[in-house]
Design a protein that fits this description.
By secondary structure, the chain is mainly alpha-helical. Helix 2 packs across helix 3 and helix 2 runs antiparallel to helix 4. The two termini are about 25 Å apart.
């Protein structure tokens, strides 16, 4: 995307690339939080130890902050 801006590509192309990057980052974030939530739900005591006290409620807040 930076290359597109630097090379003078059109606004449509730059915005399209930006949208694609944004979607990819959102999906990655949802995947990470989803995996963490599954771990915390299946073994909350171990998850709290490993994740420095992170609770399911905190994970839910993190998940909602992605939207």
């Amino acid at each position: 995307m930076i290359t597109a801006v630097e090379s003078g590509d059109g606004c449509r192309d730059v915005v399209t690339q930006l949208a694609a990057v944004s979607i990819a980052l959102d999906r990655a974030g949802f995947s990470v939080v989803s995996s963490a939530m599954q771990f915390c739900i299946t073994d909350p005591e171990r998850a709290a130890e490993i994740e420095d006290g992170l609770t399911v409620d905190e994970l839910e807040k993190l998940f909602l902050s992605l939207s």
